[in-house]
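Re: that chain you flagged

S.,

Sorry for the slow reply, it's been a week of failed gels. I finally had a moment to sit down with the sequence you sent. For the record, here it is as I used it:
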Amino acid sequence: MLTKIIILIMLALILASLFSALFYMMKDKGRGERTARALTLRISLSIALFILLLIGFKLGLIGQPHA
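Prediction finished late last night. Pasting the structure tokens below so you have them in one place:
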């Protein structure tokens, strides 16, 4: 259950970062660094989530889906 909560929190943070990048892009009209910073954060969070999923699968915290 804790694993699912962590995954959902990470996904929410990724979406929040994506929408903040959109907001900064519209507000700064593409001239600021805040958009690039927010997108970099989104990519970092996505990579961290992918690594956490791999570790969770290897440790048996995440089971294999049933067909």
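What I noticed first: The chain has a mean pLDDT of 90.

Talk soon,
D.
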